[in-house]
Specification:
The chain has about 110 residues and is an all-alpha fold. The chain has three helices and no strands.
Length: about 110
């Protein structure tokens, strides 16, 4: 087996994880706190925030994986090309995610 092909397949699998993980974790249900004896909803319920709740992180990881797949799609199997395409894509998608986070944050402050 050619070493470059094996390396490209391994990095492509890692790129697939970068693309998939942030969006798989979006719909994960968080554990609910125990209710009081009077069956009233607990006051001051705090939602636990994770790193993947921010659009900037999700889209930055998506951009890195997208850069890896774009490189493999063009036929380049060298890791340097994958990094060279992944970092700019992650930066562009991360900036778009920061803008989305700012818009969502302002809407929550207004409510």
């Amino acid at each position: 087996m050619n070493y470059d092909v094996f390396q490209a397949a391994l990095v492509g699998a890692i790129g697939g994880l970068l693309v998939g993980i942030p969006f798989i974790l979006i719909n994960r249900k968080r554990p609910q706190k125990e209710k009081t004896l009077s069956n009233e909803p607990a006051q001051n319920e705090e939602t636990r925030k994770t790193l993947f709740d921010r659009w900037s992180v999700r889209l930055a990881l998506f951009g890195a994986g997208l850069g890896v797949f774009a490189t493999l799609g063009m036929g380049y199997t060298n890791i340097g090309f994958m990094i060279g395409f992944g970092i700019p894509m992650a930066t562009i998608c991360g900036v778009i995610g920061i803008i989305i986070d700012l818009i969502i944050g302002r809407k929550k402050k207004a409510d």
